[in-house]
Amino acid sequence: MDFQTIRKLDGEYLAATYARYPVALVGGKNATLVDSEGKQYIDFGAGIAVNIFGANDEQWKAAVIEQLGKIQHVSNYYYAEPQVRLAQMLCERTGAKRVFFSNSGGEANECALKAARKYSFMKYGEGRSRIVSLKNSFHGRTLFTLTATGQDEFHRYFSPFVPEVAYAAPDMEEVVRAADGRACAVIIECVQGESGVSALPKAFVQALSHWCSENDVLLICDEVQCGNGRCGTLYAYEQYGITPDIVTTAKGLAGGLPIGACLFFERAENAFSAGDHGSTFGGNPVSCAAACNVIGRLTPEFLLEVQGKAAYLRAKLKNFDGVRAVTGLGMMIGLELEKDAKQVAAACLERGLLVLTAHSRLRLVPPLTISKTEMDEGLSILKEVLA
Ligand SMILES: *Cc1c(COP(=O)(O)O)cnc(C)c1O
Known about the structure:
With 387 residues, the protein is an alpha/beta fold. 37% of the residues lie in helices and 19% in strands.
């Protein structure tokens, strides 16, 4: 199909939820993608921080195809080897005790919020069901995770919301006030993604972690976007010197296939028992095999390379005309610009570079395997557009 046909059918048959860029991507290799008309793009977006190894990574494809050749879906009424392999890897790498698999980031967070309420209910009974989330956070599109998303613009039209969710700025006084003595959990993104790629202050996160453990309030780290090597460590919270009670992740975890995971650490280990939660597709063997390939390759050496690439990109970007600030952490890069970010993104696309926006900022989350040549090509297009 040519692009105009795709665009026409999309407009006719798909729910109009997405404001799309005028491109249909059909193939590519690593961080170089190709559209339906044969035009090439450098990819600084990775399908929103999903395609960790870019497009058509041979090792990743082999792992997926190997599992596809065995069995493609297994109900959670039965055991499945890819699930246990992945859960063991995640626990061994993070110190988590147990994992629940779902299919998306929103579902991983939904699971975490439900688990926190149950944990508190079993221990303290009713009256302690409050979730504290941060202003400018993003946690998903299900009604509970949307409620926990601290941005008013997402809240139009969908009331009534889930009760007992309160918002606080990244400030301990505000958190304590929002908790009001009846919170079971606080949910944070160490690096807030959708609202502009802002890393939370370390002192706040450490104080929060301390307060949470003192008060038996579960600390949930939403690593859906900032996790899986994105920030230069396996999970971003590691750089904050804290141990959360629950970690959720998704996006990059399976390198391009749908998956979500909710990792329970010691305090929350036994929050759920049989029948409390479930998912038909959760822990799909093909997705889990893909994720095993991803986690297995995010070695300390690989993560060092990611840190090196992030430092390289950040050093270059800092000196570009039109860049006011470079934010975020590692390969999760926000750019505060003099120009309008949406217009810059459109101009980049025109010239063959895919970038994302997050509120008023440009958001760069390239594949972690991006080559030096691809980085330089992308940077030179961006430089031209910003000047
Ligand atoms: C993308 C994102 C989500 C939602 O993930 P979906 O897979 O779209 O449901 C939740 N939290 C954060 C931090 C995200 O970036």
